[in-house]
Design brief:
The complex is a heterodimer of chains A (about 475) and B (about 40). Chain A has two domains: about 210 residues, MFS general substrate transporter like domains (Growth Hormone, Chain: A, Up-down Bundle), CATH 1.20.1250; about 210 residues, Growth Hormone, Chain: A. Chain A is an all-alpha fold. Chain B has about 40 residues and is mainly alpha-helical. Chain B is about 70% helix and about 0% strand. Chain B contains one helix and no strands. Chain B is rod-shaped. Classes of the chains: A mainly alpha (about 475), B mainly alpha (about 40). The interface between A and B is medium-sized, with 39 and 27 residues.
Chain lengths: ~475, ~40
């Protein structure tokens, strides 16, 4: 059984097309991306007992909010701790465990809803589901980078785009299933959780069964590494634990954290913001459409920006995110004041594309700086920046808004200062990005270290 | 593991397997987004 999951068992032979690997990664990421659409369950979950409307014994929204928060916390924790394990056991076992956790998270939550025990839902979707999210997120990244040394950005962009697209599948799927299963005595959440858990488990399992890793020192046919070496792309490798001892890791952590803080902060308030800035001309339905449009740009940006980064260079791509992003954030208030809805939407969409691009370009940036060998594990640890930003961004935006309203600022104008502060956050990110230099060679691994840490001893060496 | 080259049919089928749900989801989102411009 363990051999079935081993790296040697899933090492591709000659003739295997590397283009089979992105769909394996997408089969996982399109499932776990459902997490962003969890809010579609909020309203039905507040009516489990009352059915048509909330009964006094029904769960409150504040109680339900913890489900998603727990899932994100466990995403960060499992990615941070599971990344090193991933490098040891390979992507198949990691994806398999992710599938088991994510699927069983849904099933346990179904039991929790059925028994009306919130702690079971917390344990199910929050803890188990969160672990599935974290392991599933990092599992295909290093494999893709190794298969696509010539297009690292595009390869990781494809997978991480899937995470953005997962919500677009998860939301209508959940709504459709709940409509199908609802009755006079049920809101249909239990059955929907059971079906979605099963569908996601099978799909992630397909990803786990089809993933392949390239043989050692494999290169695409006809491709040779560029003769003129780029100082920002190392050919050496840095171990996961050693990476944490370099300033580059913390600068990259800040780069991701600041980019996500700014993006997540304004994403959460997009719907309210457009309605308040264009009072009377934007209905709640149109605002929901606006959020949908932003999701599309978020997803598209994940693929396009990381693909562009293969040509622009990772550092330059982040310069664009921070410099152009800061400019766009500063322009949003004036577009709102001028009443120019089209430009407002366009600016916001561009901002969201760069927010998504920040997620998808970071694994390739890590591979450039720390080498490809342990990039999955290093990426896992860097994702704690995401979890931090997930708390920091909304708190910062909400606090700033409340403070301004308390100072007597009009509702429609309360966002302006927030946007300028987000622009400053991006400028801080620009400085962090500027400070990133190649890793000192004292951190690089020696050849023997590779084999030992990987559990494979070279011929003639002691076993 | 087979040394035979990956068949084009397997490649296309696998891509369709992930692309079709994504296209469905994206089209549902676009329909919702149209409300902004109507």
């Amino acid at each position: 059984m363990s051999a079935f999951f081993s790296k040697s068992h899933i090492t591709a032979d000659s003739g295997y097309s590397r283009w089979m690997v992105p769909p394996s990664a997408l089969a996982v990421h399109l499932c776990i991306g459902q997490a962003y659409a969890f809010s579609v369950f909020n309203d039905p979950l507040t009516r489990i007992i009352g059915i048509s409307e909330s009964a006094p014994e029904d769960w409150k929204l504040t109680t339900l909010g913890w489900i998603f928060s727990l899932a994100i916390v466990f995403l960060g924790l499992s990615a941070a701790f599971g990344g090193k394990w991933l490098e040891k056991v390979g992507p198949r076992l990691t994806m398999f465990v992710a599938a088991c956790c994510f699927g069983s998270g849904f099933w346990l939550s179904a039991l929790g809803v059925s028994l009306h025990q919130i702690w079971l839902v917390y344990l199910g979707y929050g803890v188990l589901g969160g672990i599935g999210l974290g392991l599933g997120y990092v599992s295909p990244v290093s494999t893709l980078i190794k298969w696509f040394p010539d297009r690292r950005g595009m390869a990781t962009g494809m997978a991480i785009m899937g995470f953005g697209g997962g919500a677009m599948i998860g939301a209508p799927l959940a709504v459709g299933l709940m409509d199908y299963f609802k009755s006079a005595t049920s809101v249909g959440v239990v059955e929907t959780f059971m079906v979605m858990g099963t569908v996601y488990f099978i799909s992630m399992l397909i990803g786990a069964l089809t993933i392949r890793i390239p043989p050692a020192n494999w290169q695409p046919a006809g491709w040779v590494a560029p003769a003129v070496s780029n100082k920002m792309i190392t050919k050496a490798h840095v171990h996961i634990d050693q990476a944490l001892k370099t300033p580059q890791f913390y600068l990259l952590w800040l780069v991701l954290c600041l980019n996500v803080t700014a993006g997540i902060g304004v994403l959460g308030q997009a719907s309210v913001m457009i309605q308040e800035m264009f009072k009377g001309s934007v209905t709640p339905a149109a605002a929901a459409g606006f959020v949908g449009l932003l999701s599309l740009f978020n997803m598209g940006g994940r693929f396009l920006w990381s693909s562009f980064s293969d040509y622009l260079g990772r550092k330059n791509t982040y310069y664009i995110f921070f410099a152009v992003g800061a400019m766009l954030y500063s322009l949003v208030p004036s577009m709102g004041m001028a009443g120019n809805k089209t430009l407002f939407v366009l600016l916001y969409a561009l901002i969201m594309s760069m927010y998504g691009g920040g997620f998808s370009t970071i694994p390739a940036y890590l591979a450039d700086i720390f080498g490809t060998r342990y990039v999955g594990g290093i990426h896992g640890r860097l994702l704690t920046a995401w979890a931090t930003a997930g708390v920091l961004g909304p708190v910062l935006v909400n606090y700033l808004r409340e403070y301004q309203l308390a100072q007597g600022v009009a509702k429609a104008d309360a966002y302006n200062v927030t946007m300028y502060i987000m622009a400053v956050i991006l400028l801080l990110g620009l400085v962090c990005n500027w400070l990133i230099k190649p890793v000192h060679e004292k951190h690089h691994l020696k050849h023997d270290d590779f084999d030992e840490l990987d559990g494979i001893y070279p011929k003639g060496a002691k076993a | 593991m087979s040394k035979k080259p990956t068949s084009s049919i397997a490649l296309i089928a696998f891509w369709l397997y992930v692309a079709l749900p994504l296209i469905w989801g994206v089209s549902a989102t676009i329909k919702k987004a149209l409300a902004l411009f109507i």
